[in-house]
């Protein structure tokens, strides 16, 4: 009985209470604490699961909305939705496919990540592991500040500052790596290619990835670093054996956040990249123009005049939705797989 | 190979703060030496100077000499990384690398040294785990994470990791303070075995432990908080605990200590 008095006193104040009055350590206050604690627990659990359910419901609803709106267009489509690169939504039946949009979206985002993540990780490592503290502290504050600035500001800066000087870079890349289909030479000017969009997207997502990576690296337990140092690890080896493994899930999460931003970025892409001529042949080159899902939808938002036509764009939006979903799931899987090793 | 440590007039600073003042001692090879003393007297600080681990703390620096078989650890051109490869360290809290398996933890130091040969790594892994009396407990789960072991097993894993690189000296800072009595005994037995090959230095708050494992014992003290710690007495453990030369030592050991 006495071992559960805390519980019974909290739940059923009444006959039991007098049993505790002589208790050595003032049961009443502690059981009061327990009961408010329990009420607080319930409220919080309710709020948390409510919010969780709400989010899941919202996502499901958005998905359902997209599917319902897209069906009329999809059933009235003369082209293969996934494999075609047509986009004629004023005809009847419609002829539209997302192949080109998907490719440009994925290519710009992946190349942007490939540029931004290594840079971000290096900056974050420098700030947390190498910089003296008089530089590290203001540096960290600055990065957090930069991450809070809307990324379009960096996009604009990149377009106007780097854009005019980008042609030589493109010329070098196409002449050195031109044998790869991705780097094939084209007539598109450097300021309006897929590759240049990637560079701008990289600049746009760099601050947020850096800020988040810096945050995780800074939290590497000293004990892990000491373990490596005591084994005779150099600075870089300490980073490799202690800091990077500890920060890996954080880097992945930060990258996914950046990737999400890159996938959905609209204005910068619209400003830069030139749309291809309607019947242009397929090209893998990063040095041509094109449109992403987001820029395609935004570019044509003014023409959503009939439901079927709008449905075509919504179908494209649905694919972007699914793409984001897949990317995030993959990130989760990668993080989960090593979970046993990251406690 | 076991080496002799000769510390001469060592001052240790954190920034401007003098943490340990003018300590000199000789630590014999193939023996266990224990450091005892009240909290804050600089035992850990002094221990860390023996493999230059204090240098990872901002402001940590020393004046004086630490000779390892006549080679000054602080001589010009001596690389602290190289020092730490010959003087290993085990910490108060077991700190296996959480992202590595048990086996990878053991050979982490060898990998850092550039050993790639799978066979060599495997042999060393088994040999070190046997050396740390952990082999039988983990041989079936070498690819599982080290964090899944008990605290005592983790600490022995850390010892295995430290001895895998065949250091000359093994420093242990309160290696048993987070462990239960059984695990503590296991590690004390281990120290007794390891001392035939290594110079072992251990910091402990447990007087019985010092009496059980140490051949020689050093007592550190400080006059008051904020004052530097000092080496008061170093003697054979038996003498320290029966008939110490210094009054302060006797007071501390017998518990008459303010
Ligand atoms: N990182 C540090 N920066 C500044 N001062 C420190 C640092 N670590 C320790 N000190 C100071 O150095 C002195 C010695 O500390 P140390 O940790 O060596 O004591 P200790 O004998 O190991 O104590 P304990 O038995 O509690 O572990 C103390 O005054 C402590 O405040
Ligand atoms: Mg200590």
TrEMBL record, chain A:
User: Where is each ABC transmembrane type-1 domain found?
Assistant: 102-331
Q: Name one GO cellular component term.
A: plasma membrane
- Residues covered by region (Disordered): 1-35
Annotated signal sequence range:
none
User: Taking the first listed entry, what is the main subcellular location of this protein, grouped into a coarse class?
Assistant: membrane
Residue ranges spanning the membrane: these are 43-71, 101-127, 139-160, 190-212, 258-277, 312-335
CDD domains per the record? TM_PBP2 (cd06261)
Q: Which InterPro entries match?
A: MetI-like (IPR000515), MetI-like_sf (IPR035906), Phosphate_PstC (IPR011864), Phosphate_Transport_Permease (IPR051124)
**Entry superkingdom:** Bacteria
Pfam families registered for this protein in UniProt: BPD_transp_1
Swiss-Prot/TrEMBL keywords: Cell membrane, Membrane, Phosphate transport, Transmembrane, Transmembrane helix, Transport
User: Which compartments is it annotated to reside in?
Assistant: Cell membrane
Membrane topology summary: Multi-pass membrane protein
> Biological process GO terms, please?
phosphate ion transport
Q: Name one GO molecular function term.
A: phosphate transmembrane transporter activity
Provide the function of this protein. Answer: Part of the binding-protein-dependent transport system for phosphate; probably responsible for the translocation of the substrate across the membrane.
Family membership: Belongs to the binding-protein-dependent transport system permease family. CysTW subfamily.
Q: What is this protein called?
A: Phosphate transport system permease protein
| Source organism per UniProt | Dermacoccus abyssi
TrEMBL record, chain B:
* Gene Ontology terms describing biological process: phosphate ion transmembrane transport
Concerning SUPFAM superfamilies, the annotation shows: P-loop containing nucleoside triphosphate hydrolases
Where does the ABC transporter domain lie? 5-247
- Domain of life, source organism: Bacteria
The GO terms describing molecular function are:
ATP binding; ATP hydrolysis activity; phosphate transmembrane transporter activity
Alphabetical list of InterPro entries matching this protein: AAA+_ATPase (IPR003593), ABC_transporter-like_ATP-bd (IPR003439), ABC_transporter-like_CS (IPR017871), P-loop_NTPase (IPR027417), PstB-like (IPR005670)
What are the GO cellular component annotations? membrane
**What keyword terms does UniProt attach to this protein?**
ATP-binding, Nucleotide-binding, Translocase, Transport
Instruction: List, alphabetically, the NCBIfam families matched.
Output: 3a0107s01c2
The protein here is known as: Phosphate ABC transporter ATP-binding protein
């Amino acid at each position: 009985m006495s071992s559960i008095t805390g519980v019974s006193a909290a739940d059923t104040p009444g006959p039991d209470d007098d049993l505790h009055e002589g208790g050595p350590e003032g049961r009443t206050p502690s059981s009061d604490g327990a009961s408010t604690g329990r009420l607080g627990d319930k409220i919080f659990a309710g709020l948390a699961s409510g919010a969780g359910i709400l989010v899941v419901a919202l996502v499901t609803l958005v998905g359902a909305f997209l599917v319902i709106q897209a069906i009329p267009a999809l059933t009235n489509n003369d082209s293969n939705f996934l494999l075609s690169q047509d986009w004629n939504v004023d005809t009847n039946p419609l002829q539209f496919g997302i192949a080109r949009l998907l490719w440009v979206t994925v290519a710009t985002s992946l190349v942007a990540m490939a540029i931004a993540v290594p840079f971000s990780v290096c900056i974050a490592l420098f700030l947390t592991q190498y910089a003296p503290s008089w530089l590290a502290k203001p540096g960290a504050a600055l990065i957090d500040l930069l991450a809070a600035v809307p990324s379009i500001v960096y996009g604009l800066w990149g377009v106007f500052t780097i854009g005019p000087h980008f042609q030589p870079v493109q010329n070098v890349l196409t002449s050195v790596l031109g044998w790869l289909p991705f780097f094939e030479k084209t007539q598109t000017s450097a300021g309006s290619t897929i590759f240049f969009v990637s560079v701008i997207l990289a600049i746009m997502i760099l601050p947020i990835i850096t800020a988040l990576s810096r945050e995780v690296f800074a939290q590497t337990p000293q004990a892990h670093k000491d373990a490596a140092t005591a084994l005779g690890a150099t600075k870089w080896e300490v980073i490799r054996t202690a800091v990077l493994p500890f920060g890996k899930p954080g880097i992945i999460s930060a990258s996914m956040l950046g990737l999400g931003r890159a996938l959905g970025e609209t204005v910068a892409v619209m400003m830069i990249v030139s749309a291809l001529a309607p019947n242009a042949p397929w090209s893998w080159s990063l040095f041509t123009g094109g449109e992403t899902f987001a820029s395609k939808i935004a570019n044509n938002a003014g023409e959503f005049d009939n439901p079927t036509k709008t449905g075509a764009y919504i179908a494209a939006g649905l694919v972007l939705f699914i793409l984001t979903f897949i990317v995030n799931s993959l990130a989760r899987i990668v993080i989960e797989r090593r979970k046993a090793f990251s406690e | 190979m076991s080496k002799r440590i000769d510390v001469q007039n060592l001052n240790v600073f954190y920034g401007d703060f003098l943490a340990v003042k003018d300590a000199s001692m000789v630590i014999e090879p193939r023996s266990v030496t224990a450091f005892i003393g009240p909290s804050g007297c600089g035992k850990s600080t002094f221990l860390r100077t023996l493999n230059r681990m204090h240098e990872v703390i901002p402001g940590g620096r020393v004046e004086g000499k630490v000779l390892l078989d006549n080679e000054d650890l602080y001589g010009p051109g001596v690389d602290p990384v190289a020092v730490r490869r010959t003087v290993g360290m085990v910490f108060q809290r077991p700190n296996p690398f959480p992202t590595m398996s048990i086996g990878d933890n053991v050979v982490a130091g060898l990998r850092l040294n550039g050993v790639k040969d799978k066979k060599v790594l495997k042999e060393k892994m088994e040999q070190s785990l046997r050396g740390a009396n952990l082999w039988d407990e983990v041989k079936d789960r070498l690819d599982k994470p080290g964090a899944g072991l008990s605290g005592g097993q983790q600490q022995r894993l850390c010892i295995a990791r430290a001895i895998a690189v065949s250091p000359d000296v093994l420093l242990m800072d309160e290696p048993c303070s987070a462990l239960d009595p059984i695990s503590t005994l296991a590690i004390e037995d281990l120290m007794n075995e390891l001392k035939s090959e290594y110079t072992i230095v251990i910091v402990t708050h447990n007087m019985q432990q010092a009496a059980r494992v140490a051949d020689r014992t050093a007592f550190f003290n400080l006059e008051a908080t904020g004052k530097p710690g000092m080496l008061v007495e170093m003697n054979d453990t038996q003498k320290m605990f029966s008939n110490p030369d210094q009054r302060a030592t006797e007071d501390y050991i017998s518990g008459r200590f303010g």
